[in-house]
């Protein structure tokens, strides 16, 4: 039986917590009634126990509406000046709300999120997450967590309570001024079920004069599920692509072509009428996506003929591969599969070899050194030059990226040799 609380909208006054409005899919009630009870089994109406809590109102949709329209209905019914959106599968930590309310009270154009801790879906163990993360995405427009730069992490050591500017929010948990939520156009209610709404509201907030922040003094646990416990009419891939296309078409201007290059099948998914969202963009005098890339997310590498997101570094039929390693891990060679993932690399105009938010780094200025993936900070030991003939030479010392010892030590930096096949790398864009 599908069990899903589509949205919790919590009304907040700056000095006290207010009412909870829960908008729920209507078909859950009929499904629950149709289940044959075991002997002695008592089946309560969905939300009946919640409705007994002081100040809680439970609102039920007459039909399945999905996340976006359900949240808008709850927000419309809320009466206080601040809204808190929470997924139902959350556990709020001690004193989580006050730091969020304070930031919104200081500036109503701030949209703020807690640090999202992990609750194991198997054991419900509560696991604290790093506060050195922010939300981002790649050109396939899939949300990801990424480490703050070294400079930002050093600044946070002086004051670990300071707010973290984030290009993107995860979407399930945030606080926003109600009047500002309404002025910004609430949610795109033509999006269906789930997916892409966090992308759309993140672009809209930043481009239309607001800001997004993660507040380290606020922590909320979240159950990260392995699969959706509900169905997507038409399939989850098509629904997500439709929603994402709507966000891209409205907010990304010509940069949307990089999304279509990364996800070619999305071009064939109808996305509906976006005229009202384009009018909202004009009415609010929102900035172009180029402004967002320059001022909010300059770390997002723009694909060029030199390579970029969706590209790979090849040697014959083998490709440079992260081998599933993360921060401070080495890299290796693996048969090319041309689907990105562990083999997705980009060579930037600044000479960085990037794998998402990690860069290929020479940790010691010496030949024979194993190359590592480290946070991209633009330092000299991360800068390379792709030479004619395929060599990738370090910018400071005469060593080149070499695969000869990949089976023993991973990819290393060896004395440059234009005759060595293990030093010849071809940059290949998987989308062309």
Automatic annotation (TrEMBL):
UniProt xrefs under CDD domains: beta-trefoil_Ricin_GALNT2 (cd23434), pp-GalNAc-T (cd02510)
Gene Ontology terms: biological process: protein O-linked glycosylation
Compositional bias annotation for Basic and acidic residues: 1-14, 28-42
Pathway assignment reads: Protein modification; protein glycosylation
* GO cellular component terms, semicolon-separated: Golgi membrane
Tell me the segments the record calls region Disordered: 1-44
Q: Sorted alphabetically, which InterPro entries does this protein's record hold?
A: GalNAc-T (IPR045885), Glyco_trans_2-like (IPR001173), Nucleotide-diphossugar_trans (IPR029044), Ricin_B-like_lectins (IPR035992), Ricin_B_lectin (IPR000772)
- Keyword Transferase (UniProt): yes
Entry cofactors: Mn(2+)
Gene Ontology MF annotations: carbohydrate binding; polypeptide N-acetylgalactosaminyltransferase activity
Q: What is its EC number?
A: 2.4.1.-
Q: By what name is this protein known?
A: Polypeptide N-acetylgalactosaminyltransferase
Query: What PROSITE patterns does this protein's entry cite?
Result: RICIN_B_LECTIN
According to its record, how does it sit in the membrane? Single-pass type II membrane protein
Q: Taking the first listed entry, what is the main subcellular location of this protein, grouped into a coarse class?
A: Golgi
Q: Where is the Ricin B lectin domain?
A: 307-428
> Where would you find this protein in the cell?
Golgi apparatus membrane
* A Pfam short name: Ricin_B_lectin
Give the organism, scientific name.
Frieseomelitta varia
Q: Which family does it belong to?
A: Belongs to the glycosyltransferase 2 family. GalNAc-T subfamily.
Keywords associated with the record: Disulfide bond, Glycosyltransferase, Golgi apparatus, Lectin, Manganese, Membrane, Signal-anchor, Transferase, Transmembrane, Transmembrane helix
């Amino acid at each position: 039986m599908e069990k899903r609380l589509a949205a919790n909208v919590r009304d907040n006054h700056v000095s006290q917590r207010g009412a909870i409005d829960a908008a729920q899919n209507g078909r859950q009630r009929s499904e629950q009634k149709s289940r044959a009870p075991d002997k002695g089994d008592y089946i309560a109406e969905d939300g009946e126990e919640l409705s007994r809590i002081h100040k809680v109102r439970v609102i039920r949709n007459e039909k399945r509406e999905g996340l976006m329209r359900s949240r808008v209905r709850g927000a419309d019914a809320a009466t206080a000046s601040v809204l808190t959106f929470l997924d139902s599968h959350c556990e709020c930590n001690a004193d989580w709300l006050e730091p969020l309310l304070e930031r919104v009270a200081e500036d109503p154009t701030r949209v703020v999120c807690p640090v999202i801790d992990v609750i194991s879906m198997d054991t419900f163990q509560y696991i604290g997450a790093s506060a050195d993360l922010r939300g981002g995405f790649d050109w396939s427009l899939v949300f990801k967590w990424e480490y703050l730069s070294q400079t930002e992490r050093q600044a946070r050591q002086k004051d670990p309570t300071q707010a973290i500017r984030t290009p993107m929010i995860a979407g399930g948990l945030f606080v926003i001024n109600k009047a500002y939520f309404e002025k910004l156009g609430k949610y795109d209610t033509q999006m269906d079920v789930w997916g892409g709404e966090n992308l759309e509201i993140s672009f809209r907030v930043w481009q239309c004069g607001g800001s997004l922040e993660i507040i380290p003094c606020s922590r909320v646990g979240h159950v990260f599920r392995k699969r959706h416990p509900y169905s997507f009419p038409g399939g989850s891939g098509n629904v997500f692509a439709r929603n994402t296309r709507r966000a891209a078409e409205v907010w990304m201007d010509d940069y949307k072509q990089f999304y279509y290059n990364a996800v070619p099948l999305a071009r064939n998914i109808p996305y509906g009428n976006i005229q009202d969202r384009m009018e909202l963009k004009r009415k609010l005098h929102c900035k172009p996506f180029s402004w967002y890339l320059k001022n909010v997310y300059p770390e997002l590498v723009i694909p060029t003929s030199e390579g970029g997101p969706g590209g790979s570094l090849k040697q014959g039929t083998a490709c440079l591969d992260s081998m599933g390693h993360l921060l401070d891990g080495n890299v290796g060679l693996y048969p090319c599969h041309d689907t990105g993932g562990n083999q997705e690399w980009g060579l930037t105009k600044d000479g960085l070899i990037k794998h998402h938010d990690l860069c290929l780094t020479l940790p010691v200025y010496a030949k024979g050194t194993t190359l590592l993936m480290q946070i991209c900070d633009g330092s000299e030991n991360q800068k390379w030059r792709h030479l004619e003939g395929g060599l990738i030479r370090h910018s400071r010392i005469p060593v080149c990226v070499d695969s000869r010892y990949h089976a023993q030590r991973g990819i290393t930096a060896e004395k440059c040799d234009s005759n060595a096949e293990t030093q010849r790398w071809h940059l290949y864009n998987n989308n062309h």
